[in-house]
Structure formats: structure tokens, C-alpha cells
Amino acid sequence: MNNRYRPVQLAQHTFPWLSVQVTRVASQKVDPKLGKLGGHLCIFAERLPHLSDSQKRRLEHHGTIRRLLTKLETALSASSNPTKIRHGLISLPFGGHLDFPLLTNIAIAMEDANDGGHKGVRALPLIEPIIRNALLKGNIDYAGIFSTFVEVSEIGQEDNGEVDEALVPQSPSGKDDFAGYERYAKALYKVLVRYGSCNCDRQDQNDRHWARLRLKPLYQANENNQIPFDMLFSASPNPPRTVRFEWQHVRVFVPTSKSRRKVQWAQQLAPAHEADQPDGTDNEAYERIETLCTLIASRCGSLLCFKAAGDHLMVLRGATDLVSQHNVKHDTSPGLHLGQVLDRFNMRHGMRPVLAYILAKAAWYYYDSEWTSMGVSNDCVYFMGETLEDEVVYFCKPYLSAQLPPQGSQMAECRQVVGMIHRYPRILALGVMLVEIATGQRFEMEGRPDQWDPKTANQQLLTLQKHLNNGEFHEDCRFPRYKAAVNKCLDPMLFRNAPFNPKKPTENLEQRRSILYNEIVDPLRQLIEGTGWDDELDDIEQTALVPKPRAKTGLKPPAHFIVSEMAAPAAPAVPKGDPWLEEITVLNKMLKAERRKASTRNTPFKVAILDTGYDDSSPTFDIPGRSRKVKGWKDFVSCSPHPVDTDGHGTHLLTLLLQLECPANIYVARVTESSKTLNSAERNIAEAIRMAALEWDVDFVSLSFGFPRHIQGIREAIADAVYAKRGAITFFAAANNDGFNRREMFPANLGESVISVRGTNRTGSFEPKYNPPTSSDEPVFGTLGVDVLSDWPGFETGKLMSGCSVATPIAVAIAVMLLEYAVARPREFDPDDLKLIRTRRGVFEMFKEISVHAGDHRHYVAPFNLFRLSEDVRLAKMKTALGRHPERW
């Protein structure tokens, strides 16, 4: 069968259109049954996009959706010859042997029509009579269709989309994990403590190297009966958090058999000739060491390999052969703890329950272990940045911050304080994390749960219970099993059958750990297995976290108002999330992913911003890796070797470009102190343009300013840059710089050398204030330039800015997207095309092809419909644009 769509996809494509057709016939025929059918189609069409992947799999696995489609296909094609429909002999444009020929023709026609294709537009009027005639005949199995709709609707309605408990596999506790893992973890801790004293030169004897223990969803022994532990150690002891430092990666293999009592640290298993030898015969490959500190401080930058012979630690001599494949480079920073990650990042669907399961399992495994002397809480769980292609990326890989040996007071298991409701701080700390993960927000709490007084502890407990019951969890955390696990964490009577005895702390300890597993860990395990996320653990761990968009918070009003300000209508509030800007961020991330998959790697494109400089302490730079995108800095005003911005305009533009995840290296030239000194900055601008082209070799230059007259020096500098780059450079300039000038400014009006940028609102309408007249017959472009939030020195939550100057870097980001898309597909474009696309005319024609008309036929809005089109249509449009290049004429 030539089935283009899966059953759920077919329903998603056809039901919205079918509901309209059925409802229209029902109103003409005044048929309540047809009206009910149209209502069912409409309701289910609305619900389909909100079903989880697991619910869609269940619809297809049980055949429910296929039965529904079969009944609808039979009913709607009753007026025509089924054989003709199947072979496309009734003038339907899309033929082939199909399971659901009529529905598939509808789906293909709808998809083609939405992409702007003429084939689909012509096909739909041919299909409508078939549907109408079948509905008017009335030979429809309404009872069968309605009963199938009931079956379909039952999936996803169990408590807001939770998995049916009966379908979640029941399995023995910890069946996938190595039994007794916690014992070997304790043994490893003792060995590390013995060798963990710091002997670095000029260090205090109490100094310690920071340690991070990787927390995993699955702990298993390998074929040599060894359990692997992944760890990170700071190369320097007690490094200041403001100083960048190196991390030393180690992998620990703890033997589980008594005949092979050793601990081996290695990138992979020992060579076969060593592993097969009896104990004591492989010691020639190892060298005994005195301190772990000496090797960690060596900053070798690759995996260290050790083994423990009894209570002794030994290093593997042939380590270079084993570490050559180790290519993970960690960012030189302390990492981000869970609370910071929740503040700054979003997680893909399924990440949250998996992370909750990992942390719950860690709390169970290390419940009475020195590894968790400070407890398992959001400020002890870290995520470490990994450097990929000069960019810092955070994945769903939690680490536990450990102290070797423990320092300070340890988190008590039980606090028998009068008036305190929940007396088990370790369990309460786990509950806090599970609620934070489910809601995606960090709770501001002073101190750890074991430090709270009774009043604070009781208030926090009530707050957590409120969050549990008010339904604000993310969709993938709304399952009954997740809520049950959280509820048990917040239950003061969890250990009623295995109470804590302060005189005998170890009494009933194993029973409490068993309760912790059965009531909290196991429900989360069953949840991720029932949803299928356990099959995606590798993908989830390799999927990057997505930075959250900046919150759109308005500025505080002044303390005093004049009468006219009080009477003026209030400006419309900016939405908390800006879908317009978020879309370009998502698309840029998509292009980055495709670029990594490409067979050939190209150097990133380069963008130069000429403005008032930038402030590198702005909140945008709190996201690790963003500062790395800025590759060059030059101050033509005060010759400062470090970034500076005494105005704020340049900071706003640069951080906007960074927040859009523009896949380019950025160079910043400070050419003026502020807009007031712009008229005296002509020489600085000319020098900066030449430097950008000749030294920085940039592909794009962003000029968010303008002059009312032509400046000969700047015009010559642009001409020199275009000549030096052989045309492979594009200048973007603000058409009228915040709208304070009445006509198009220089250099935006240079024509062939520069692309002029105007400002639009979020609906794509050109704002009169930011749309100056032009004497040229050439099309003009606009993009978002109204109420755009970005950093501004002195404004904690950023500042809203409007104008062509804001639209300019957004237009640059779109241009970079276009070029990234093309170069990631070298087989689709001729080498000459890839050269043309780098020119100003090439970019201009591409903009014209992907943009849409807005009012005047010469006005175009540059949105992102290029990336909403099908692959074939998208490539065809780009090639059409390149075909209009003058060199093709």
C-alpha cells in the first residue's frame, strides 16, 4: 500500500475540513445526525493536536483510529465507484493504491493548498461533490461511527491525558538495576575520601577539589561484573565561582565479584588480554599513586583511568589508548544547579518525568550514604555545560554535587521537633524538587528543609500541597502516577509503619528505603515505561535544553504624572511570551541541528554590529556560551580593550541578536558614544566598515542608524568593502532610525549596496512612523520593530524598544537563517548559487521570495513562511529567487 500518512496524521489533516463540509450539508438538510457527526469531527479535530505521543500511539496500536477512518471512508465515498476512487480515475489528482483513498486525497490536497500549490486548490472542489452526494443519500452507519468516536474519545480523557493505569506494565522493583548498587557506591566513596586530601602547592590543608557524580536512569554491571560511575573533579581546589577553571572527567568501574576486588577508572573496558587474566597478573599495567589530587590537578583534559587494589588507588599506564575516543569538553564554569536550570531553560516533552525519576532513584540509592550528606535538593543537583562547536550546551544529564569528605552538618534523616508536621527533610527536599520540575519554576526558600523552623516547614508543606492540587503541572507531569509520587513525598505519615528511632537510627532503615522505592520511585518508573519514554532515554539525554524567552515586563511608571499623561490611553500590554520572536529562535535552533548533521561543515557566518558598544554584564550573557558568540571587539571612541556601552542602544541590539540564537559569530564595533554624538562619528563608522570587511571578513553588517545626508567617507568605505569581498557582503541599515526623520536616511538609501529595513507590528502591518517614503521603484522590506524587549544597562528586566533600528538586527538574523539553510544542503544548490546567495542582490531576491505583500505592492514583510512550506516548495522558491539574480540574466 502507498500510505503517505499514518492514521493519526490522516485524521489531523482531514477532520477540520470534513467537519466544515458535514456541518454545511447538515444545515441544508436540517439533519440532527449529520449535525452531531460534524460536531464530533470538529471536537476531535480540536483535541488531536493536544494528545501526547503515547496517547497517539495507543490510538494506532489498538486500531481504534483506523476503525474510525474505515467507517468514514465507507460513508463519504458511498456515492462513487470505490474502484475508481482507489485508482484515481474520477479526475482526482492524487492516485495510487491507498487504504483510505478519498481521505488521503483530501489530506494531500489540503497540504498542497496550504503550501500555496495550485494542484490542491483545484482538487478540493472536485472532492466536495463526492462528500455532499454521500451525505445527502443518507446511507451512513451513524451508530457505528458514533460508537467508534466514543472509543477514540476515551483515550486521553483519564484525568487530563493520563495513561490508563491498566496499560502501565507492572514489573518487580528495580528489575533493570544492579542489585546492591548502593553498597558499591559506599565502597567507592570510602576509597575516594582516603585519597582525596588536597596536596596542591600553596593550598590550605582543608581545601578540596569539587566533585560531581553523574546520576543515571539505569545502573547495570558490565560483562566483567563492574559498575560504571561517571564523575567530574575540579582541576583546582575550591575554585572561586567567578574564575573559569577546568573539569577533569573520570569514569569509575567498581567490581562486583569478590574474586576481582578492584576499582578501575577507564574510558572503556580494559583490553581483552588484561581483563581475561586472573587477579594480580595485570598489575604491570598500573602504577600506584599516593594522592588523587596530584593527577586531577595535572589538567590532562581527557579521561583519567584508575583501579583500586584493595584499599589502594592505582593509575593505568596505558591510558592514552583508552582516552583517545573521549571527546566531551565541559565548560569552564561551576555549572548550573537545578533551580537555575528551571529559571533559564525549557525541557522537551518527557524530559521532566525522566528527570524526576532519576532524582527519586538517587534519593533512594543514596538515602543513607555519605554521597548525599547535604541531601538531594535543587542546589545540590547540577547540570554541566558541554562545549560543542564553540557553543555551550546543557543536556538532561544531572550530576550530584558531593563533598569528599563531608564538611559541615549533614542533613538529618528525621527531625523530631514539636509542632513540625513533616519530619523527614530528605523526603521533603525530594518533594520540593518534583513539584519544581512539574511546574517548571523554582521556589524561593531560605535554607534547607533540615534547617527550617516548625512554622516555615509547615508553611512550605502547605504551599507544595497547593501546587500539587491546583493543576499547574506541565502536561507530561499530569499523570496520576507522578502526582501520587509527589503526594507521598509530602505525606507526613509516609513512614508510619517504619518509624525513626533517635536512639537507634539504623532501626527500620531498610524498611524506610523500601517504602521510599515502592511509594515514590516505582510509580515514576512505571510512568516512564508506560509512556514509552524509557525507550527514549538516550535521545532525552542527548537533547539540549532550550533557553526560556525573556519575560516581557513593562517599565515601572514614574512617581509623578502630568495631566496629559494621565488622560492618554494606556499602551497595550506586551504578551508575556512573544510568539513572533520565539518562532525565529526555534527556527535558528532547527538550522543549528541540521548544520551539525550536514556531511560538510562550513565556518559560521559573521555579523558585525556598528553601534554604541555593549555591556557584557547584561542578563543575556548569564546563559553560558552566549559570550562566546562575540568574537571581536573594537572601540573607536575611547579605545577601551573591554566591552563598554555608556548609552545602552548597542547592548539592546546585540543581546536581541543573541537571544534570537542567530547562528553566526558576532563582531562589535563601538563607533559612537550615543545618538547625540553620531554626527561626529563619520570617520569612526568608515574605519569600522573597512575593519569589518578586511580584518573580520564578515558577511553582514548591521547599521541601526542613519544620516539626513550622504556621507562621502562612509559611502566610499562601503564601496571598498564590497570590492574587497567581491560582493559577498550585505549591509542592513535602518530606514529612518526610530522614526524621527521624515524620509529614508543614508546609508539605507544607497540601493545596490544596502538593504533598507523598516518596522512593522506583530500582525505584519507597516507602522507609519517607521515606514518613510522612498524615491526608488525597488521593493522595500519590513520586519518586527514595535515593542521589542531586550537588555538595557540599568534595567533588570530589559527595555521595550521600537523603530527601524530594532528591526535591523532581526532582518540580519533572517538573512543568516536563509544562508544557513542553503549551505546545509550543498547537493540542492550549485556552487555558483551558493556564491550568489552571499551577495546583497542574492539576499534581496531571497527576501522578496519568502516575504508577503503588505498594502502597497512594493512593500514586503519578511516573516518565516519559507520554513512553513514543504521541502520541495521551499527549495523551489529559493532557486527561483537565485534565478532572478542579475548574473543569471
Classified by CATH, the class of the largest domain is Alpha Beta
- Say how many strands there are: 25
* Computed structural class: alpha/beta
Count of structural domains: 4
Strand order of the largest sheet: 5-7-6-4-3-2-1-13-10-8
GO molecular function: serine-type endopeptidase activity
Keywords: Hydrolase, Protease, Serine protease
Domain DUF7580: 182-526
Family: Belongs to the peptidase S8 family.
Tell me what the structure shows.
There is one protein chain. The protein is 39% helix and 14% strand. With 889 residues, the protein is of the alpha/beta class. It folds into 4 domains: 151 residues, no CATH class; 128 residues, no CATH class; 206 residues, Transferase(Phosphotransferase), domain 1, CATH 1.10.510; 310 residues, Rossmann fold, CATH 3.40.50.200. The strands form 5 sheets. The protein has a 10-stranded antiparallel beta sheet with strand order 5-7-6-4-3-2-1-13-10-8. A 9-stranded mixed beta sheet has the order 16-17-15-18-19-20-21-25-24, with helices on both faces. Helix 23 links the parallel strand 16 and strand 17.
